[in-house]
Design a protein that fits this description.
Blueprint: H1 20-30, H2 39-54, H3 58-71, H4 77-93, H5 97-114, H6 117-130, H7 133-149, H8 153-156, H9 158-172, H10 176-192, H11 196-212, H12 216-233, H13 238-250, H14 254-268, H15 272-277, H16 279-289, E1 304-307, E2 312-314, E3 323-329, H17 335-353, E4 356-362, H18 366-376, E5 382-384, H19 389-394, E6 401-406, E7 412-418, H20 427-442
Parallel strand pairs: 3-4, 4-5
Antiparallel strand pairs: 1-2, 1-5, 3-6, 6-7
Helix pairs in contact: 1-2, 2-3, 2-4, 3-4, 4-5, 4-6, 5-6, 6-7, 7-9, 9-10, 10-11, 11-12, 12-13, 13-14, 14-16, 17-20
């Protein structure tokens, strides 16, 4: 996108809020085309700061905004407004809402005075975020009224977001009927404005309110339709997976819910904002998604698999003799799997001292198992689960690895499925489990 030295290009065309790093680079690529110190140049810097803040690089964002502040003059009202907005956003994102509030208020007042309705609505919606629930509704209502009466078509695009935000304020207060009505209104705005991606998010919110109202089957049907819509659009949405799991769990279908919880955890755990602010929520998704097929007290399935030399090894060969540590790994060629095999080998003597034996069960190519046997020379057998059938009898659908510990009679004591080899239980935990089993069996 080319720009004349003093003209501001349409920055909305450059923004990708899902990838602020890419957005920042786009803005930086544009900087040399603008004359340093002009309103257009300074406005572009405010958006670089916003991209930095979304990447949680708050110090860099403030430094960028310091440069804008130092160059501000009496002219360029929009630059002043955007500076105030972005400084406030950085403070709010870094958990300093008390410092953000006066900046948003100043942005609101300047934008209203300048007739910049789009940015006035932006400021009001940010004030709603930092205020108490009661004041949040007041600010959102002011923003909504302005968006409804403004002749600025760009500003009218705020209508869906404002109804959505008000809906969540009511939802968080347990007023689900009011929340549903606002989510439905947001959906109508999104559809009327042809915002298909945003409309899918609005449908998700409607379904979420339906679940809160106990209309779970309706919510499930909507989420299933959203899943189909996302797949057709080439999108993956962890929140849809989460809600499918929650709906199925509420309807008593925990087995059906499990893979959705697992996929939700996989997707949502990549979000640094959720990882920081919603750790308990992610931990719950992980636990529900990785819940073992087998339960403590069950006798685990029998199996016969070939070791690296092609010799059959039967689980029942250890019955009445050894407690078993069965470790399921995706592939012997996987770096994390090999690291874990080395850790098991280092702990093997301690396992044996507690009457334990290790069986490492690997999928993938047999040649990789042969290579691992030659390279690592583990003191326990590496078994090849060629078709994955044995692993499937132990691991839930979303798990790629796992550790299962039984007593010498084959009764399961501990089960720890994992998303991947890097997430497996530390060998110190396995040793503690074996010690507990051996003490109990000695009674």
């Amino acid at each position: 996108m080319q720009a004349t030295p003093n003209a501001m290009p349409d920055l909305d065309q450059l923004w990708d809020y899902d990838d602020p790093a890419v957005s920042e680079q786009r803005f930086r690529d544009l900087l040399p085309q603008l004359q340093t110190g002009t309103p257009a140049y300074l406005e572009l810097l405010t958006q670089i700061a916003r991209a930095q803040g979304l990447q949680r690089d708050f110090d860099a964002a403030h430094q960028t905004l310091d440069a804008v502040e130092a160059a501000l003059t009496d002219g360029g009202e929009r630059v002043h407004i955007r500076y105030l907005l972005e400084r406030g956003r950085v403070y709010n994102s870094s958990k300093q809402p008390e410092r953000a509030r006066p900046l948003f208020l100043a942005a609101w007042e300047r934008a209203r005075a300048a007739g910049e309705d789009f940015y006035a609505i932006d400021a009001a919606h940010m004030l709603a975020i930092v205020e108490s629930p009661e004041q949040s509704l007041v600010w959102n209502q002011q923003a909504l009224e302005l968006a409804e009466r403004t002749p600025d078509q760009r500003a009218k695009k705020w209508l869906g977001s404002l109804c959505n935000n008000m809906g969540w304020t009511y939802h968080d207060a347990g007023q689900y009927d009011q929340a549903l009505a606002l989510f439905q209104k947001a959906l109508a705005y999104r559809e009327a404005q042809g915002q298909e991606r945003e409309a899918r998010i609005a449908r998700w919110c409607v379904a979420r309110a339906l679940r809160s109202l106990g209309r779970t089957e309706e919510a499930l049907a909507m989420q299933q339709t959203l899943l189909d819509d996302n797949e057709r659009a080439g999108d993956t949405d962890g929140y849809v997976f989460e809600e499918l799991g929650e709906c199925l769990l509420a309807l008593g279908s925990s087995a059906e819910a499990q893979p959705y919880f697992a996929r939700a955890y996989t997707e949502l755990s990549r979000d640094p904002w959720l990882a920081e602010g919603e750790a308990e929520r992610l931990a719950r998704l992980k636990a529900l998604g990785m819940e073992s097929i087998l339960r403590p007290g069950q006798v685990v399935p029998t199996f016969t698999l070939l070791d690296a030399a092609g010799v059959p090894v039967r689980r029942t060969a250890y019955r009445d003799k050894k407690h078993l540590v069965m470790v399921f790994l995706p592939d012997a060629g996987d770096g994390s799997a090999r690291t874990y095999l080395r850790a098991l080998a280092q702990s093997y003597a301690a396992f044996r001292a507690e009457n334990g034996e290790v069986l490492a069960i690997l999928r993938g190519d047999h040649r990789a198992i042969e290579d691992a046997q030659r390279e690592l020379a583990p003191p326990f057998p590496l078994l090849h689960d060629a078709d994955g059938a044995t692993s499937a009898r132990f691991l839930p659908p979303a798990a790629c690895a796992g550790v299962f510990v039984t007593d010498r009679y084959g009764e399961l004591y501990f089960a720890a499925p994992a998303a991947d080899s890097a997430s497996l239980q530390p060998t110190a935990d396995i040793l503690a489990w074996l010690e507990a089993i051996d003490r109990q069996c000695a009674i």
